[in-house]
Sequence to fold (357 residues):
Amino acid sequence: MTDSNTLYIPDTMRAMVFHGPGQPLRMEELPVPAPQPGQVVVKILACGVCRTDLHVFDGELPHPKLPLILGHEVVGMVVAQGKRLHDEPILTTPSLVGIPWLAWTCNTCPACLCGQENLCVKARFTGYTTNGGFAEFALADARYVLPLPQPWAGLTEAANMAPLLCAGLIGYRSYRLAGLELTADPQRSLGAEHLGLYGFGAAAHILAQLAKSDRRNVYAFVRPRDESAMAFARALGAVWAGPSHQLPPHPLDAALIFAPSGELVPMALAAVRHGGIVVCGGIHMSDIPGFPYELLWHEKTLRSVANLTREDGFLFVKKLQHTPVQTSVRTYPLAQANQALDELRHGAFHGAAVLLP
Fold:
């Protein structure tokens, strides 16, 4: 790695390594990966700690690569590039990029060929089936990194950008699958005025700001008696905030569920109007309890979100060049990754957790 496309990087790096469910992450010194053709090495400036990382850590997502470096909300600088192939973007060294959840797809299966690469049966995922960002450096396929403007979303710190790489992206895809498009024109009517967000954490606190910029009324549903979460939601523009089991003061046009609790599904179906849409935005959810058909009748729609596409990423980056957001983050040194995961599990903070290598 000594050509003109490479900056100086050390031979080794620190990483918090996952060896299996029930075992804490271990700090280890590993070789810095060398880029193969079509790959880049990224010096990590910040990596968000996502609930998906927690699902892998707790063994709720099967068959991760082991040993594994978790983390898929990566913001960093390109410091080395392999030989360029014919179909990847041209990246300068250094340049600011994001490494999201989707790490690679086959580009030949029916899902890939019809614009649904998020459903590719051979897909690889950052921090799950490929190594991620709980480290000082990461290796990525150049076609799947997202070039980021500086600043991005009105943010100047990498720690504040990191949650946008998954919490923001999955929120955005959930929004699109609910039939709602974010628009740069606040005068444009998009047909749905009342949006419910169940679980007001990393994804919802970003999406609430974007929905408000589209002149939508946001209703935040949080854990019962969590007054601080209700106040947090109102501070970010929610017109109403209350416990998840309570019906909102107005029927919802759409409800997005980000908390991994299946019992929220019938509650959300009860809260949406006839013809309304409920989207489950998580990669893992506890079992959905039985509910009467009456809750689904009247042409209500219930659907899930699976992963994301590169198009989602490019559109989201473009949108946030026109609609700045504020992200609420709690930062941790890399060595405190276990603490960050535990505090995320117990809801010890509002917003998102971010590791700083």
Observations:
- The two ends are 22 Å apart (CA to CA).
